[in-house]
Amino acid sequence: MGNPSPDNTAEDSALPVPVTQAGRDGLRALLQRPRTAVIGLDFDGTLAPIVADPDQARAHPGAVPALAALAPKVGSVAVVTGRPAGVAVRNGGFAGVPGLEHLIVLGHYGAERWDAATGTVTAPAPHPGIATVRAELPGVLDRAGAWPGTWIEEKGRAVAVHTRRADDPEAAFRTLRAPLTDLATRHGLIVEPGRLVLELRPPGVDKGVALLDLLRRTGAESVLYAGDDLGDLPAFATLEKLRSEGVPSLLVCSGSSEVTELAERADLVVGGPEGVVRLLASVAAVIQG
Questions:
Q1: pTM
Q2: How many CB atoms lie within 10 A of CB 8?
């Protein structure tokens, strides 16, 4: 059976309609030529609800079934996350799932890669500045003032400071940003701000770089990318640039009242992970064959 015609996909499938022409073109291209399309997805806030303790984050119950239905019909599906790849695989429940035999998880913003086909993670050596920052970070936080509830997340190739549990999360975030940026800079790292989290990590890797490398490797002719946080902006920027080179794309924001920058640049805003799951399932249902 063929794929849906470019003129009736939204009406026939109850797919949400992107608010921009570029987004509508991206969705149409994906549905017309799914075998050359790449689906890129953030994890936290996109496939998994945001929770106070990141260790407890788990994929939305509908995420794996939706991905398993969609993945065999498109060129490639990749989860692109700031988490270690193995943690995202565990928390997502992605390993050993029929239909996800070719799933890729790009962890640490692409510094790590997990392939479902082999079940292994490949990665270069960690940046030497991470160990030094890890040792100095408690002292820097102490000197910045007491913020009960602020805590450090060890991420292997990065380290993050969360303020979501603090009495005043926004004030803690603002106060800590400058000293953490100074600490990162002194050791050759950068600070990536997110939803009440400041992550210290190596430069030169971000979701835009990771996504571009994947698209080049796969020869993608269209892309859907969904994210929810500031760390997803480089992926949006990469796809906006590729549009000028003739690669159609659909930029999806997993809606959040905490981060507006992504929603303002998105072609389509959906209602958090539940909305992302509905979108993926709808796309899978529309693609025939």
A1: 0.82
A2: 9
Q: 127 vs 66, 89, 112, 168, 230, CA distance in Å? A: 36, 23, 13, 32, 22
Backbone angles phi, psi at 279, to 5 degrees: -65, -45
From residue 159, give the alpha-carbon distance in Å to each of 2, 23, 191, 192: 48, 35, 10, 10
The amino acid occupying position 263 is: A
Contact between residue 182 and residue 200 where contact means Cβ atoms under 8 Å apart: no
Looking at per-residue pLDDT, the higher value among 55 and 259 belongs to: 55
Tokens of 186: 């002194």
Rounded Cα gap, residues 87 and 156, in angstroms? 11
User: Cβ atoms within 10 A of the Cβ of 281, count?
Assistant: 17
On the 0-12 / 13-18 / 19+ scale of CB atoms within 10 A, 14 is: exposed
pLDDT in tens, 179-201: 999 999 999 999 989 889 999 99
Can you give the length of the chain in residues? Answer: 289
